[in-house]
Amino acid sequence: MVYIVALLAVVFLGLAALVVSRMAGVVKNVNGPVSEDRIGTSNRINGALFLAFLILGLIGAVWSFLYARQFFLPEASSIHGRRVDFLFWLSMSIITFAFVVTNILLFYFAWRYQHKEGRKASYYPENHKLELIWTVIPAVIMAVLVFTGWRAWRDIMSEAPKDAQVFEIVGKQFNWIVRYPGIDDNKLGAYNYKLIDNNNDTGIDYTDEASFDDFTSTTELHIPVNKPILLKIRARDVLHSVFIPHMRVKMDAVPGMPTRFWFVADKTTDEMRNETGNQDFGYEIACTEVCGRGHFSMRLRLIVEDEASWQAWCKEQKPLLSSTPELAVRIPGNLKAKAAKYLPADGASAPADSATASVQKSGGLAVVRSTIR
Amino acid sequence: MATAIDNQATVAHVAEHEHHEPQSFLRTYIFSEDHKTIAKQYLISGIIWSVIGISLSVIFRLQLGFPDMNMGFLRPVLGNWINESNKLDPNFYLALVTMHGTIMVFFVLTAGLSGTFSNFLIPLQIGARDMASGFLNMLSYWFFFLASVIMFASMFIETGPAGGGWVVYPPLSALPQASPGGGSGMTMWLVSMALFIVSQLLGGINYITTVINLRTRGMSFSKLPLTIWAFFLTAVLGLISFPVLLSASLLLIFDRSFGTSFYLSEIYINGEALPNVGGSPILFQHLFWFLGHPEVYIVLLPALGMTSEIIATNSRKPIFGYRAMIASMMGIAFLAFIVWAHHMFVTGMNPFLGSIFMFLTLIIAVPSAVKAFNYITTLWRGNIRFTPAMLFSIGLVSFFISGGLTGLILGNSALDIQLHDTYFVVAHFHLVMGAASAFGLLAGVYHWFPKMFGRMLNEKLGYIHFWLTFIGIYLVFFPMHYVGIAGFPRRYYAFTSYDFTKNIFADMNSFISLAAVFTFTAQWVFMYNFVYSLFKGKKATQNPWKSNTLEWTTPIEPGHGNWPGEIPAVYRWPYDYSKPGAKDDFIPQNVPYSQTPESNLPHENELISLEKEIEAQNLNDQFKQPH
């Protein structure tokens, strides 16, 4: 392909040289004899060029599509994504048809009805029937596209199912922070932007006991496969936008206004590695709302795995409270006891407590798992 | 149409106007109140801005196409924006993108297109001596000039120009600590835009008043050329929507400088939690796009209007479906106000609103399709002369179709989820709004240059310019769709951070950049042609395109007041080309039906009796008013 680019560069250079030489010639003739009959050879050349442009353009369009196709995103890894893809290619084929037909008519007519000495154009100011036809046909096609699109939109944007696994994703300059609800209560705690500091970069509010087991990550988001995932999205400083290209997911992160997007990922990272034949394949989350200098590099890795290994991974993670015990001072007195098991200070009792908690919890999750599969 | 009566009127008129003293150089060429001079001022300003605007895009295309390129050679121009390792600074990349968008949308395609041709053509085509208020018109240009100076100056301050994208979404644009582009560059952007809006409103009021009040005898709305219809609707759009952008900018200025919280809420930045709560960044987006979407049609409608005229003239055929064309322009103008939120499907706006706006958006496709089909049918069985203006008009129709069709996909909210803010969007709006409007502008320049400057542009150079530009633009924007389908987000400084963009399409991006450089280079053919023909072009004849509209009945270089004598009266619509039975293949608007019995249609013969009435009508001749 580098060669093709180089080749085209040469062609461009050649064209440029041609233009310069033609220009010199043209300029020389500017004050020379000017034929009164302006409509002559140039008119025929331009007409022919339109036809040539049409043919070469269509060939170029087809060829470039066939070439570029290999680089398109692979089939969507989410259920709604495949529906959207289907609608996209359906619309694409309809508009491609319209594109080809109208451009053929445009350029063909330009060539066919170029000036001929002695011919008179036909005086054809209107035809109501014709106009009605090409008002109604686009309207009908539009109605079909709108209706199918609207149904998909309605379903995608509907309330997340009750059993959806919740994650919070927070945008900041210039990375994403993911907050997991924690394995003990599987519930996100409250937050307040005024509580944000270096130790607590999502502003977790420790007066809410649901916060105690929450843990965060700035590098990766692990989600279970085949389970509704609800992303609760917010931003800390300026607008960002969560974009998961392989899942066909996009939603802005807005400071002061939490947003959300739910979807079901149904191909694990490993399955995709096999499918694409690329052992380094990984899902990614990008930012698509301009947010400043580092906008182009807000990468967060997304790992889709089966529920069991997801559970196992979550268990390995330490709640933020455990890794940053300084935050304990924010816990109100009446909840100190409940938080104690996450704090290393009472080293002896903590492991015992968390062990019992996780046993209970994994039992609960096993039920959930069995209902899903 | 110099009848005896006309001649008498001329004499009387001339006598009446002897008292006009020749004006000073300053009043004639700089602070002129003459619509033709103001139009030329807009045109020259627009051309200068377009060179700046496109140059900026070439710089960031070099970055995107050749990320490893040594940019050291730009240091004499860009100074420290080229960092130690000879790379473009990422903040400056965003500033380039922002300024390119702002300049091209507002300063080139709004001021340069509508400003030039509304000013130039409205009085000439409706048969008026000048604009309703020459003074407001002059103010309009000089407000624009002031806005230009401030916007231009903002590129030279230390923190650089505004850098949050041309849409300047807060909080990025509201917080100087969020990016250097949010600093004084942003303040200057807002001040410049506020002045720009004042200029647009002054201009718009003038266009509307002129079209409504100063049409010549017989020039009913149903005989107006489509150009004037387009300029009129454009002015209405601007008048209603620009004040909303002004309010959005004012609130943003308050948030930036006076501690209000219209757009700011719950922000923690640079180690500090800001006190602002209760504001909504979405509010700004609503206000912005309430202008932003009509703005698309503000730049596109004049181009569509002018090319309707040019295509009819050069096909030697009446425009097909004159009334349908007007109706679809009105439909587009109306719908333009109620589709703005399709830019905001995934901003967290209520999904129900998304559904509503999807329905409304896709309705726009219907009048747009009607327009495209009418253009094509106008070519059918014509007798086409490929003047450079005609070539650019056909190019516009092609871009309008190619870019407009992808609008069906982006207007569909379900599909927009994936494509929003990717290169697919960039390709879409550059074709349908950028390239199409730019071609309208160029077609207009080629077509009306003889009327503006009394000389012809060189046709051969025009052909070369057209073909290089037409091919170049398709080579730039067609492949961009592929890049967008592959998920590449826009406004990215580099595509190296993600696996899904790394090592893919690098050559495609190089290709697009080469095509952009090529297209930019081709514009110098036009620049050369423009400057050369200005001084040494072939002298124009009075009606070089054998056109029907009134501007071609003025002297080759119309002076103050446009017509030396009485303003001609209008008897017929502007599209009597190739009428069966007629001697020539065109009958200008000021030829009464009584003079063309051989070609009149039955219902037109009945109109002959009305001609006396038209002639007796009270003429809105500004020169006859005490002034």
Automatic annotation (TrEMBL), chain A:
Residue stretches making up the Cytochrome oxidase subunit II transmembrane region profile domain: 65-160
Keyword annotations from UniProtKB, A to Z: Copper, Electron transport, Membrane, Metal-binding, Respiratory chain, Translocase, Transmembrane, Transmembrane helix, Transport
EC number: 7.1.1.9
Domain Cytochrome oxidase subunit II copper A binding intervals: 162-316
Membrane topology: Multi-pass membrane protein
Xref: PROSITE patterns: COX2_CUA, COX2_TM
Cofactor list: Cu cation
Database matches in Pfam families: COX2 (PF00116), COX2_TM (PF02790)
Cell compartments where the protein resides: Cell membrane; Membrane
Catalytic activity: 4 Fe(II)-[cytochrome c] + O2 + 8 H(+)(in) = 4 Fe(III)-[cytochrome c] + 2 H2O + 4 H(+)(out)
Major localisation: membrane
Transmembrane segments: 48-66, 86-111, 131-153
Enzyme class: translocase
Co-factor: note: Binds a copper A center.
Family classification: Belongs to the cytochrome c oxidase subunit 2 family.
Protein purpose: Subunits I and II form the functional core of the enzyme complex. Electrons originating in cytochrome c are transferred via heme a and Cu(A) to the binuclear center formed by heme a3 and Cu(B).
The protein's name in its UniProt record: Cytochrome c oxidase subunit 2
Source species: Spirosoma utsteinense
UniProtKB/TrEMBL annotation, chain B:
Keyword Iron: yes
Keywords annotated in UniProt: Electron transport, Heme, Iron, Membrane, Metal-binding, Respiratory chain, Transmembrane, Transmembrane helix, Transport
Predominant cellular place of this UniProt entry's protein: membrane
Membrane topology label: Multi-pass membrane protein
Protein family per UniProt: Belongs to the heme-copper respiratory oxidase family.
Matches recorded under InterPro entries: Cyt_c_oxase-like_su1_dom (IPR023616), Cyt_c_oxase-like_su1_sf (IPR036927), Cyt_C_Oxase_1 (IPR000883), Cyt_c_Oxase_su1_BS (IPR023615)
Record flagged with keyword GTP-binding: no
Protein name (database record): Cytochrome c oxidase subunit 1
Record-linked PANTHER family: CYTOCHROME C OXIDASE SUBUNIT 1
Cellular location(s): Membrane
Lineage, opening ranks: Bacteria, Pseudomonadati, Bacteroidota, Cytophagia, Cytophagales
Cited PROSITE patterns: COX1, COX1_CUB
Residue ranges of every copy of the Cytochrome oxidase subunit I profile domain listed in the record: 25-571
Transmembrane parts of this sequence: 42-64, 92-122, 134-157, 189-214, 226-254, 287-308, 320-340, 352-377, 389-411, 423-449, 461-488, 508-531
Pfam families: COX1
